[in-house]
UniProtKB/TrEMBL annotation:
It is found in: Cytoplasm. One of its GO terms (biological process) is heme biosynthetic process. Pathway: Porphyrin-containing compound metabolism; protoheme biosynthesis. Coiled coil: none annotated. This is Coproporphyrin III ferrochelatase. Fe-coproporphyrin III binds at S99, Y168. GO terms for cellular component: cytoplasm. Residues 19-28 have a biased composition (Low complexity). Pfam families: Ferrochelatase. The gene is hemH. It comes from Modestobacter italicus (strain DSM 44449 / CECT 9708 / BC 501). Fe(2+) binds at H233, E319. Keywords: Cytoplasm, Heme biosynthesis, Iron, Lyase, Metal-binding, Porphyrin biosynthesis.
Amino acid sequence: MTDLARPRHLLPAGASLTPPDQQPDQDPSLAVRNNGGVEPSAAPAPAGRREALLVLGFGGPEGHDDVMPFLENVTRGRGIPRERLEAVAEHYHHFGGVSPINDQNKALVAALEAELAAAGTAMPVYWGNRNWAPYVEDAWRQMAEDGVEHAYVLATSAYASFSGCRQYHEDVARARIALELDPAAPAGPTAEKLPHYFDAPGFVQANAEALATAIAALPADLRDTARLVATAHSIPDAMAAVAGPQGGAYEAELMRAAQLAVDAAAPGRPFDLVWQSRSGPPSVPWLEPDVNDHLRALAEAGEKAVVVFPVGFISDHLEVIWDLDNEAEETAGELGLAFVRAGTAGTHPAFVTTLRELLEERRAGGEPRLGTNCPASCCFVQRPARP
Ligand SMILES: CC1=C(CCC(=O)O)c2cc3nc(cc4[nH]c(cc5[nH]c(cc1n2)c(C)c5CCC(=O)O)c(CCC(=O)O)c4C)C(CCC(=O)O)=C3C
Ligand SMILES: [Fe+2]
Protein backbone atom coordinates (compact mmCIF):
# COMPACT_ATOMS: atom_id res chain seq x y z
CA MET A 1 0.00 0.00 0.00
CA THR A 2 1.27 3.41 -0.86
CA ASP A 3 1.39 5.86 2.00
CA LEU A 4 0.12 8.97 0.34
CA ALA A 5 1.14 11.17 3.23
CA ARG A 6 4.72 9.92 3.30
CA PRO A 7 7.34 12.61 3.71
CA ARG A 8 8.04 14.45 0.51
CA HIS A 9 11.09 16.28 -0.66
CA LEU A 10 13.69 13.62 -0.44
CA LEU A 11 16.79 15.69 -1.14
CA PRO A 12 19.56 14.04 0.87
CA ALA A 13 22.13 16.08 2.79
CA GLY A 14 24.65 17.54 0.39
CA ALA A 15 22.27 17.32 -2.57
CA SER A 16 20.11 20.26 -1.55
CA LEU A 17 19.72 23.14 -3.95
CA THR A 18 22.39 25.59 -2.95
CA PRO A 19 21.77 29.34 -3.08
CA PRO A 20 23.20 30.70 -6.32
CA ASP A 21 25.72 32.95 -4.62
CA GLN A 22 27.23 29.82 -3.05
CA GLN A 23 27.30 27.76 -6.21
CA PRO A 24 30.58 27.11 -8.01
CA ASP A 25 29.12 27.86 -11.43
CA GLN A 26 31.72 30.01 -13.12
CA ASP A 27 30.95 28.08 -16.29
CA PRO A 28 27.54 29.31 -17.50
CA SER A 29 26.81 25.93 -19.10
CA LEU A 30 26.64 24.48 -15.59
CA ALA A 31 23.94 26.88 -14.52
CA VAL A 32 21.14 24.78 -15.95
CA ARG A 33 22.18 21.74 -13.94
CA ASN A 34 22.15 23.87 -10.84
CA ASN A 35 18.56 24.73 -11.63
CA GLY A 36 17.29 21.25 -11.09
CA GLY A 37 18.61 18.28 -12.99
CA VAL A 38 17.28 19.48 -16.30
CA GLU A 39 19.39 19.14 -19.41
CA PRO A 40 18.09 21.05 -22.41
CA SER A 41 20.12 20.67 -25.54
CA ALA A 42 20.49 22.92 -28.55
CA ALA A 43 20.88 19.82 -30.73
CA PRO A 44 17.87 18.09 -32.28
CA ALA A 45 16.51 14.98 -30.54
CA PRO A 46 18.64 11.99 -31.57
CA ALA A 47 16.81 9.60 -33.90
CA GLY A 48 15.52 6.50 -32.16
CA ARG A 49 15.72 7.90 -28.62
CA ARG A 50 12.79 6.66 -26.53
CA GLU A 51 11.03 9.82 -25.48
CA ALA A 52 8.01 10.70 -23.36
CA LEU A 53 6.00 13.73 -22.36
CA LEU A 54 5.43 14.18 -18.63
CA VAL A 55 2.57 16.40 -17.50
CA LEU A 56 3.81 17.74 -14.16
CA GLY A 57 0.94 19.01 -12.04
CA PHE A 58 0.32 20.56 -8.66
CA GLY A 59 -1.76 17.69 -7.33
CA GLY A 60 -4.91 17.79 -5.25
CA PRO A 61 -6.82 15.71 -2.68
CA GLU A 62 -9.24 12.95 -3.72
CA GLY A 63 -11.40 12.87 -0.58
CA HIS A 64 -11.93 14.37 2.88
CA ASP A 65 -9.16 12.33 4.50
CA ASP A 66 -6.61 13.55 1.96
CA VAL A 67 -7.19 17.24 2.57
CA MET A 68 -4.97 17.93 5.58
CA PRO A 69 -2.07 15.67 4.51
CA PHE A 70 -2.21 17.35 1.08
CA LEU A 71 -2.14 20.83 2.61
CA GLU A 72 0.77 19.77 4.79
CA ASN A 73 2.65 18.62 1.69
CA VAL A 74 2.00 21.96 -0.01
CA THR A 75 3.03 24.12 2.92
CA ARG A 76 5.72 22.09 4.72
CA GLY A 77 8.37 24.49 5.95
CA ARG A 78 6.59 27.49 4.46
CA GLY A 79 5.40 29.18 7.65
CA ILE A 80 1.74 29.24 6.58
CA PRO A 81 -0.42 29.91 9.65
CA ARG A 82 -2.55 27.01 10.89
CA GLU A 83 -5.73 29.14 10.64
CA ARG A 84 -5.07 29.67 6.94
CA LEU A 85 -4.69 25.90 6.41
CA GLU A 86 -7.92 25.23 8.27
CA ALA A 87 -9.75 27.84 6.21
CA VAL A 88 -8.43 26.38 2.94
CA ALA A 89 -9.29 22.87 4.14
CA GLU A 90 -12.92 24.02 4.43
CA HIS A 91 -12.87 25.09 0.77
CA TYR A 92 -11.84 21.55 -0.20
CA HIS A 93 -14.37 19.93 2.18
CA HIS A 94 -17.07 22.05 0.57
CA PHE A 95 -16.41 20.01 -2.62
CA GLY A 96 -16.31 16.63 -0.86
CA GLY A 97 -12.58 16.94 -0.20
CA VAL A 98 -11.96 16.48 -3.92
CA SER A 99 -10.00 18.98 -5.97
CA PRO A 100 -11.12 19.19 -9.58
CA ILE A 101 -7.48 19.58 -10.62
CA ASN A 102 -6.77 15.85 -10.98
CA ASP A 103 -9.61 15.23 -13.43
CA GLN A 104 -8.55 18.35 -15.31
CA ASN A 105 -4.98 17.10 -15.60
CA LYS A 106 -6.21 13.65 -16.68
CA ALA A 107 -8.28 15.34 -19.37
CA LEU A 108 -5.22 17.29 -20.50
CA VAL A 109 -3.19 14.07 -20.68
CA ALA A 110 -5.90 12.42 -22.79
CA ALA A 111 -6.14 15.45 -25.08
CA LEU A 112 -2.36 15.51 -25.54
CA GLU A 113 -2.30 11.77 -26.31
CA ALA A 114 -4.91 12.30 -29.01
CA GLU A 115 -3.14 15.37 -30.36
CA LEU A 116 0.23 13.60 -30.55
CA ALA A 117 -1.31 10.53 -32.20
CA ALA A 118 -3.11 12.68 -34.78
CA ALA A 119 0.11 14.53 -35.57
CA GLY A 120 2.06 11.29 -35.94
CA THR A 121 4.29 11.95 -32.94
CA ALA A 122 4.61 8.58 -31.30
CA MET A 123 5.28 9.40 -27.69
CA PRO A 124 3.64 8.21 -24.48
CA VAL A 125 2.29 10.80 -22.05
CA TYR A 126 2.84 10.37 -18.30
CA TRP A 127 1.36 12.31 -15.40
CA GLY A 128 2.87 13.09 -12.01
CA ASN A 129 2.32 15.72 -9.33
CA ARG A 130 4.27 17.74 -6.83
CA ASN A 131 1.91 17.49 -3.87
CA TRP A 132 -0.29 14.41 -4.25
CA ALA A 133 -0.53 11.01 -5.89
CA PRO A 134 0.33 10.18 -8.55
CA TYR A 135 3.59 11.75 -7.44
CA VAL A 136 6.26 12.82 -9.87
CA GLU A 137 8.64 10.33 -8.22
CA ASP A 138 6.27 7.50 -9.13
CA ALA A 139 5.86 8.72 -12.70
CA TRP A 140 9.64 8.94 -12.99
CA ARG A 141 10.08 5.37 -11.78
CA GLN A 142 7.41 4.21 -14.22
CA MET A 143 9.18 5.96 -17.09
CA ALA A 144 12.44 4.31 -16.04
CA GLU A 145 10.80 0.86 -15.93
CA ASP A 146 9.24 1.49 -19.32
CA GLY A 147 12.65 2.27 -20.79
CA VAL A 148 12.04 5.96 -21.44
CA GLU A 149 15.37 7.65 -22.17
CA HIS A 150 14.32 11.29 -22.28
CA ALA A 151 11.35 13.15 -20.80
CA TYR A 152 9.96 16.48 -21.91
CA VAL A 153 8.34 18.06 -18.87
CA LEU A 154 5.19 20.12 -19.28
CA ALA A 155 4.49 22.01 -16.06
CA THR A 156 0.87 23.05 -15.58
CA SER A 157 1.87 26.68 -15.15
CA ALA A 158 2.55 29.08 -18.02
CA TYR A 159 4.60 31.60 -16.07
CA ALA A 160 7.86 32.44 -14.31
CA SER A 161 8.20 32.44 -10.49
CA PHE A 162 9.44 30.05 -7.86
CA SER A 163 6.02 28.38 -7.51
CA GLY A 164 5.24 28.26 -11.24
CA CYS A 165 8.63 27.42 -12.73
CA ARG A 166 11.61 26.84 -10.50
CA GLN A 167 9.76 24.59 -8.08
CA TYR A 168 8.76 22.35 -11.01
CA HIS A 169 12.45 22.11 -11.96
CA GLU A 170 13.12 21.10 -8.36
CA ASP A 171 10.35 18.48 -8.51
CA VAL A 172 12.12 16.90 -11.48
CA ALA A 173 15.46 17.04 -9.69
CA ARG A 174 13.92 15.38 -6.64
CA ALA A 175 12.38 12.61 -8.72
CA ARG A 176 15.67 11.95 -10.48
CA ILE A 177 17.65 11.89 -7.25
CA ALA A 178 15.15 9.50 -5.63
CA LEU A 179 15.73 7.06 -8.48
CA GLU A 180 19.50 7.48 -8.44
CA LEU A 181 19.57 6.73 -4.73
CA ASP A 182 17.81 3.41 -5.27
CA PRO A 183 20.42 0.90 -6.42
CA ALA A 184 17.71 -1.50 -7.57
CA ALA A 185 16.01 1.06 -9.81
CA PRO A 186 16.67 1.22 -13.53
CA ALA A 187 18.34 4.38 -14.84
CA GLY A 188 15.69 6.99 -15.40
CA PRO A 189 15.34 9.36 -18.32
CA THR A 190 17.17 12.60 -18.83
CA ALA A 191 14.84 15.55 -18.80
CA GLU A 192 14.08 18.99 -20.07
CA LYS A 193 11.25 21.31 -19.14
CA LEU A 194 9.24 22.99 -21.87
CA PRO A 195 9.43 26.81 -21.88
CA HIS A 196 6.91 29.26 -20.45
CA TYR A 197 3.84 29.40 -22.68
CA PHE A 198 2.01 32.52 -21.48
CA ASP A 199 2.31 34.07 -24.96
CA ALA A 200 2.00 30.91 -27.06
CA PRO A 201 -0.68 31.45 -29.74
CA GLY A 202 -3.01 28.65 -28.65
CA PHE A 203 -2.91 29.68 -24.99
CA VAL A 204 -3.73 33.25 -25.99
CA GLN A 205 -6.53 32.05 -28.27
CA ALA A 206 -8.09 29.88 -25.58
CA ASN A 207 -8.05 32.75 -23.09
CA ALA A 208 -9.31 35.26 -25.66
CA GLU A 209 -12.25 33.05 -26.65
CA ALA A 210 -13.14 32.50 -23.01
CA LEU A 211 -13.01 36.24 -22.38
CA ALA A 212 -15.18 37.00 -25.42
CA THR A 213 -17.72 34.38 -24.30
CA ALA A 214 -17.81 35.87 -20.80
CA ILE A 215 -18.32 39.41 -22.10
CA ALA A 216 -21.15 38.16 -24.34
CA ALA A 217 -22.82 36.56 -21.31
CA LEU A 218 -23.49 39.98 -19.76
CA PRO A 219 -26.75 41.80 -20.41
CA ALA A 220 -26.49 43.86 -23.60
CA ASP A 221 -26.45 47.21 -21.79
CA LEU A 222 -23.41 46.21 -19.71
CA ARG A 223 -21.31 44.42 -22.31
CA ASP A 224 -19.40 47.39 -23.66
CA THR A 225 -18.74 49.09 -20.34
CA ALA A 226 -17.94 46.18 -18.02
CA ARG A 227 -14.47 46.36 -16.48
CA LEU A 228 -12.15 43.57 -17.59
CA VAL A 229 -10.22 42.18 -14.63
CA ALA A 230 -7.43 39.64 -15.11
CA THR A 231 -6.44 37.59 -12.06
CA ALA A 232 -3.51 35.42 -11.05
CA HIS A 233 -2.30 33.77 -7.87
CA SER A 234 -0.75 36.32 -5.55
CA ILE A 235 2.82 35.52 -4.53
CA PRO A 236 5.08 37.13 -1.93
CA ASP A 237 6.61 40.42 -3.09
CA ALA A 238 10.04 38.87 -2.53
CA MET A 239 9.18 36.01 -4.89
CA ALA A 240 7.86 38.41 -7.54
CA ALA A 241 11.02 40.52 -7.30
CA VAL A 242 13.28 37.61 -8.32
CA ALA A 243 10.98 35.97 -10.91
CA GLY A 244 12.90 35.45 -14.16
CA PRO A 245 16.53 36.29 -14.95
CA GLN A 246 16.02 40.05 -14.50
CA GLY A 247 13.29 39.83 -11.84
CA GLY A 248 9.66 40.90 -12.16
CA ALA A 249 8.93 38.30 -14.86
CA TYR A 250 5.81 36.87 -13.18
CA GLU A 251 3.99 40.20 -13.34
CA ALA A 252 5.44 41.07 -16.75
CA GLU A 253 4.42 37.77 -18.33
CA LEU A 254 0.93 37.97 -16.80
CA MET A 255 0.51 41.52 -18.05
CA ARG A 256 1.56 40.38 -21.52
CA ALA A 257 -0.79 37.37 -21.53
CA ALA A 258 -3.73 39.47 -20.34
CA GLN A 259 -2.97 42.16 -22.94
CA LEU A 260 -2.81 39.58 -25.75
CA ALA A 261 -6.16 38.09 -24.69
CA VAL A 262 -7.80 41.53 -24.53
CA ASP A 263 -6.26 42.54 -27.88
CA ALA A 264 -7.95 39.53 -29.47
CA ALA A 265 -11.26 39.53 -27.57
CA ALA A 266 -11.95 43.22 -26.96
CA PRO A 267 -9.37 45.29 -28.83
CA GLY A 268 -8.56 48.66 -27.29
CA ARG A 269 -10.39 48.05 -24.02
CA PRO A 270 -8.58 48.78 -20.78
CA PHE A 271 -8.13 46.00 -18.25
CA ASP A 272 -6.70 45.54 -14.77
CA LEU A 273 -4.41 42.80 -13.47
CA VAL A 274 -5.08 41.95 -9.81
CA TRP A 275 -4.34 39.07 -7.46
CA GLN A 276 -6.20 36.27 -5.73
CA SER A 277 -5.71 33.42 -3.26
CA ARG A 278 -3.19 35.20 -1.02
CA SER A 279 -1.64 32.93 1.56
CA GLY A 280 1.12 33.36 4.14
CA PRO A 281 1.21 35.31 7.39
CA PRO A 282 -0.18 38.87 7.25
CA SER A 283 3.27 40.22 8.17
CA VAL A 284 4.71 39.08 4.81
CA PRO A 285 3.81 41.37 1.90
CA TRP A 286 2.23 39.68 -1.14
CA LEU A 287 1.19 41.17 -4.50
CA GLU A 288 -1.82 43.49 -4.20
CA PRO A 289 -4.56 44.49 -4.73
CA ASP A 290 -6.61 41.44 -3.92
CA VAL A 291 -9.44 40.88 -6.39
CA ASN A 292 -12.09 41.46 -3.69
CA ASP A 293 -10.58 44.82 -2.66
CA HIS A 294 -10.36 45.74 -6.32
CA LEU A 295 -14.06 45.00 -6.85
CA ARG A 296 -14.85 47.31 -3.91
CA ALA A 297 -12.76 50.09 -5.45
CA LEU A 298 -14.48 49.61 -8.81
CA ALA A 299 -17.94 49.78 -7.25
CA GLU A 300 -16.98 52.94 -5.36
CA ALA A 301 -15.81 54.44 -8.63
CA GLY A 302 -19.29 53.81 -10.07
CA GLU A 303 -18.61 50.71 -12.17
CA LYS A 304 -21.66 48.51 -12.85
CA ALA A 305 -20.19 45.23 -14.16
CA VAL A 306 -17.00 43.16 -14.19
CA VAL A 307 -15.65 40.31 -16.27
CA VAL A 308 -13.01 38.42 -14.30
CA PHE A 309 -10.62 36.30 -16.37
CA PRO A 310 -8.14 34.10 -14.45
CA VAL A 311 -5.37 34.16 -17.04
CA GLY A 312 -2.88 33.09 -14.35
CA PHE A 313 -4.22 29.52 -14.31
CA ILE A 314 -4.61 26.88 -16.99
CA SER A 315 -7.65 25.09 -15.57
CA ASP A 316 -10.69 25.74 -13.37
CA HIS A 317 -9.13 24.23 -10.26
CA LEU A 318 -10.13 24.90 -6.68
CA GLU A 319 -8.63 28.36 -6.39
CA VAL A 320 -10.72 29.39 -9.39
CA ILE A 321 -14.00 27.78 -8.41
CA TRP A 322 -13.75 28.80 -4.75
CA ASP A 323 -11.88 32.10 -4.65
CA LEU A 324 -13.59 33.51 -7.75
CA ASP A 325 -16.91 31.72 -8.31
CA ASN A 326 -17.64 31.75 -4.61
CA GLU A 327 -15.84 34.59 -2.84
CA ALA A 328 -15.33 37.19 -5.56
CA GLU A 329 -18.80 36.61 -6.99
CA GLU A 330 -20.26 37.09 -3.52
CA THR A 331 -18.28 40.30 -3.07
CA ALA A 332 -19.58 41.56 -6.40
CA GLY A 333 -23.14 40.66 -5.39
CA GLU A 334 -22.87 42.65 -2.16
CA LEU A 335 -21.60 45.60 -4.16
CA GLY A 336 -24.34 45.36 -6.78
CA LEU A 337 -21.78 44.66 -9.52
CA ALA A 338 -22.79 42.34 -12.34
CA PHE A 339 -20.17 39.55 -12.41
CA VAL A 340 -19.09 37.02 -15.01
CA ARG A 341 -16.04 34.77 -14.69
CA ALA A 342 -14.30 33.66 -17.87
CA GLY A 343 -13.12 30.08 -18.29
CA THR A 344 -9.52 28.90 -18.39
CA ALA A 345 -7.60 27.20 -21.23
CA GLY A 346 -8.37 23.67 -19.98
CA THR A 347 -8.32 21.34 -22.99
CA HIS A 348 -9.15 23.95 -25.62
CA PRO A 349 -7.93 22.41 -28.92
CA ALA A 350 -5.82 25.47 -29.76
CA PHE A 351 -4.13 25.20 -26.36
CA VAL A 352 -3.42 21.50 -26.79
CA THR A 353 -2.01 22.14 -30.27
CA THR A 354 0.23 24.90 -28.95
CA LEU A 355 1.59 22.53 -26.32
CA ARG A 356 2.42 19.95 -28.98
CA GLU A 357 4.16 22.67 -30.98
CA LEU A 358 6.27 23.62 -27.95
CA LEU A 359 7.27 19.97 -27.69
CA GLU A 360 8.13 19.79 -31.40
CA GLU A 361 10.14 22.99 -31.07
CA ARG A 362 12.27 21.42 -28.33
CA ARG A 363 12.68 18.20 -30.31
CA ALA A 364 13.95 20.22 -33.25
CA GLY A 365 16.70 21.70 -31.06
CA GLY A 366 17.81 25.32 -31.08
CA GLU A 367 18.47 27.65 -28.20
CA PRO A 368 16.26 26.75 -25.23
CA ARG A 369 13.90 29.51 -24.13
CA LEU A 370 13.03 30.78 -20.69
CA GLY A 371 11.56 28.14 -18.44
CA THR A 372 13.66 25.44 -20.12
CA ASN A 373 17.07 26.91 -19.63
CA CYS A 374 16.98 29.12 -16.55
CA PRO A 375 20.08 30.71 -15.05
CA ALA A 376 20.94 29.37 -11.61
CA SER A 377 19.70 32.46 -9.80
CA CYS A 378 16.40 32.59 -11.74
CA CYS A 379 13.32 32.64 -9.47
CA PHE A 380 15.53 31.67 -6.55
CA VAL A 381 13.91 32.43 -3.22
CA GLN A 382 15.63 31.65 0.04
CA ARG A 383 13.01 29.38 1.63
CA PRO A 384 13.20 27.89 5.08
CA ALA A 385 14.73 24.41 4.86
CA ARG A 386 12.17 21.64 4.63
CA PRO A 387 12.42 19.06 7.40
C1 LIG B 1 2.07 31.09 -8.37
C2 LIG B 1 1.17 30.01 -7.86
C3 LIG B 1 0.35 29.19 -8.61
C4 LIG B 1 0.18 29.20 -10.12
C5 LIG B 1 1.22 28.34 -10.78
C6 LIG B 1 0.92 26.85 -10.72
O1 LIG B 1 -0.20 26.45 -11.07
O2 LIG B 1 1.80 26.10 -10.30
C7 LIG B 1 -0.31 28.31 -7.70
C8 LIG B 1 -1.20 27.28 -8.11
C9 LIG B 1 -1.94 26.47 -7.26
N1 LIG B 1 -2.02 26.54 -5.89
C10 LIG B 1 -2.84 25.54 -5.46
C11 LIG B 1 -3.15 25.27 -4.11
C12 LIG B 1 -2.50 25.85 -3.03
N2 LIG B 1 -1.53 26.81 -3.03
C13 LIG B 1 -1.12 27.12 -1.73
C14 LIG B 1 -0.12 28.00 -1.34
C15 LIG B 1 0.66 28.81 -2.21
N3 LIG B 1 0.50 28.96 -3.57
C16 LIG B 1 1.48 29.83 -4.05
C17 LIG B 1 1.66 30.23 -5.38
C18 LIG B 1 1.00 29.64 -6.48
N4 LIG B 1 0.09 28.60 -6.42
C19 LIG B 1 2.26 30.23 -2.93
C20 LIG B 1 3.45 31.17 -3.01
C21 LIG B 1 1.75 29.61 -1.79
C22 LIG B 1 2.27 29.70 -0.36
C23 LIG B 1 3.03 28.46 0.01
C24 LIG B 1 4.37 28.38 -0.69
O3 LIG B 1 5.18 29.28 -0.48
O4 LIG B 1 4.58 27.42 -1.46
C25 LIG B 1 -1.88 26.28 -0.86
C26 LIG B 1 -1.72 26.23 0.65
C27 LIG B 1 -2.90 26.81 1.33
C28 LIG B 1 -2.99 28.31 1.10
O5 LIG B 1 -2.40 29.02 1.89
O6 LIG B 1 -3.66 28.71 0.16
C29 LIG B 1 -2.75 25.52 -1.66
C30 LIG B 1 -3.77 24.52 -1.20
C31 LIG B 1 -3.32 24.80 -6.58
C32 LIG B 1 -4.23 23.56 -6.52
C33 LIG B 1 -5.66 23.96 -6.50
C34 LIG B 1 -6.55 22.74 -6.48
O7 LIG B 1 -6.42 21.87 -5.60
O8 LIG B 1 -7.43 22.63 -7.34
C35 LIG B 1 -2.75 25.36 -7.69
C36 LIG B 1 -2.91 24.93 -9.13
FE1 LIG C 1 -1.00 27.99 -4.73
